[in-house]
Automatic annotation (TrEMBL):
It comes from the Bacteria. This is ParA family protein. It comes from Sulfidibacter corallicola. Residues 6-176 form the AAA domain. InterPro entries: AAA_dom, DNA_Partitioning_ATPase, P-loop_NTPase.
Length: 263
């Protein structure tokens, strides 16, 4: 069975693309055939890798019927990881891109692509619960939400959970919420400590893994490399821990189908 993992968040700036990219590579290193799909019109994955926005055909060309999903899959330096880039997309064409991706159910067609059978397909989505993210959630099997520990993100949780509950009830009953992954956590900041304490006390759906605030992420971005390719580091080990925790929740530990309303 193909696993469709959607990285989604109501708020921007929480590190979705960084999590998606490093998690995809880590899952490939563990031994899973993995595909990273860049659905964001701003193409954060391409920018993180130092690739030009118009360098490759991709999702935009699939939507227009110019190429197939198979023809747009790009190999990477890891034999088990492939990339489906956003493709060539002019800024004025973004609204049409969003409409077609949603109404033509493109994420579902990606997951159903025969050559991706039994793969892990990771969808990196734009911020918010717009049509692109909704389309990915309608197709996905699981959702993971990066959470940056500040009060604005804490207040946005209900909006996210309300959207997930609606999609699960009306469009995709098989959708499972894996939980929130704490990202950019700085243990030296009292404000972060307070938010995280409230999160752990009040919310049951928080993963054990914590991704720290670290200058290594900025260095990796400057070098156009994923953190996990920067050599052995505590940050790389955290992504290994995250990947193993996700695999345990998906395959070994029962994951609740209930999308909970947060108070």
């Amino acid at each position: 069975m193909t696993l469709g993992l959607v990285i989604a968040s109501q708020k921007g700036g929480v590190g979705k693309s960084t999590v998606a990219l490093n998690l995809a590579l880590t899952l490939a290193e563990i031994g899973y055939d993995t595909v990273l799909v860049d659905t964001d019109p701003q193409s954060a994955v391409n920018l993180n890798l130092g690739k030009g926005e118009s360098q490759f055909q991709g999702l935009a060309q699939v939507i227009m019927g110019q190429v197939t999903v198979e023809e747009t899959l790009l190999p990477t330096n890891h034999p088990r990881l492939r990339l489906l880039p956003k493709g060539r997309l002019a800024i004025h064409a973004v609204p049409a891109f969003e409409l077609r991706l949603y109404h033509d159910r493109i994420p579902e067609k990606i997951i159903e692509t025969p050559c991706l059978k039994d793969s892990i397909v990771i969808f990196d989505t734009p911020a918010g619960m717009g049509m692109i993210t909704r389309a990915a959630l309608r197709a996905g099997t699981h959702v993971l939400t990066p959470f940056r520990p500040d009060h604005l993100n804490l207040r946005s949780m209900n909006q996210l959970m309300e959207t997930l509950a609606y999609i699960q009830a009306e469009e995709n009953p098989n959708l499972q919420f894996l939980g929130f992954i704490l990202n950019m956590f700085d243990k030296k900041r009292n404000a972060h400590q307070r938010v995280v304490t409230k999160l752990w006390c009040d919310i049951p759906l928080v993963l054990d893994t914590v991704l720290p605030h670290s200058e290594l992420f900025e260095v990796a971005q400057d070098k156009k490399l994923p953190v996990v390719l920067m050599g052995p580091s505590p940050e790389a080990r955290r992504f290994r821990q995250l990947a193993e925790e996700i695999l345990e929740r998906v395959g070994g530990r029962e994951v609740s189908h209930e999308i909970r309303q947060l108070v």
